[in-house]
Specification:
With about 280 residues, this protein is an alpha+beta fold. The chain is built from 5 helices and 15 strands. Bound molecules: S-adenosylmethionine (SAM).
Amino acid sequence: MRLFFFSLLFCAAPSWAWDDGTTPFVVSPDAVVERMLYLAQPKAGERLVDLGSGDGRIVIEAAKRFGAKGLGVDIDPRLVKLATDNAKRAGVESLASFEVKDLFETDLHGVSVVTMYLLPEVNLQLLPRLIDQLKPGARIVSHDYDLGPWPFDEMIELGLAEKMVGPLGRSRVFLWVVPADARGRWAADLPELGGRWQFDIGQKFQILDVDARAGDSKMVVRGARLRGEEIRMAVTGQVGGKGYNVLFAGRIADRRIEGTVRVSDGESYRTIPWKASR
Ligand SMILES: C[S@@+](CC[C@H](N)C(=O)[O-])C[C@H]1O[C@@H](n2cnc3c(N)ncnc32)[C@H](O)[C@@H]1O
């Protein structure tokens, strides 16, 4: 029943439909598919899944342009057949496959890129699965609708005069990068920056709330966030009576962070290595 309403609601003015008019669906225009893949940047060998794959265009384009191994799942067997035929016609059937499957039953473990063009409430129902099953660094791109409480990492908006569904005459493409778990207390030895540093990190999605101390000095932290496993934060404050502006950048792997610190102390700029453990 839910699927029936989904099709009706979403596909009121399809740009493609079956000849008999039943089970219509809406395709993402080519310009949107291009932006989705531009944001997702699938790499050769990575696995991509399009949840609700329609005629297969996203999976097929990802295979053609990026060599990505893709799976499209759709609840409608006729669309799965169409997508499979389209993949053969495009010569990418070894990379692009399609299955009749409910998107809520599709396993996303090990998947690097998830694409979707679904209704806002479907996105919200999917959110816990995306968070539970995708690994840090995996990218999610969605046409037109966001993921509610999860702030996007990037968004592209483009004008499309011919667009007759959703936001009329325009499309939005959202990107989220699944963040690593950065929560907890981290310590780093930075002799050049006053010795022992301590970071207490709270986290909501990719946004970090960081309390930083250098020795006995409390520092001011701005713009701390994650992009997958990459952490960045700008820190200012006094260390040993000297004012510093520092930019920490690093990669989180399990209980360690390794990266670099760009230091400006009013006299010079330099970059030093940085390691922290939790
Ligand atoms: C708006 S179309 C998007 C097609 C394609 N991803 C694109 O962007 O061009 C949404 C597709 O989701 C499919 N769909 C709807 N509910 C689904 C469900 N529960 N499981 C799998 N597919 C579903 C529909 O059949 C339809 O083909």
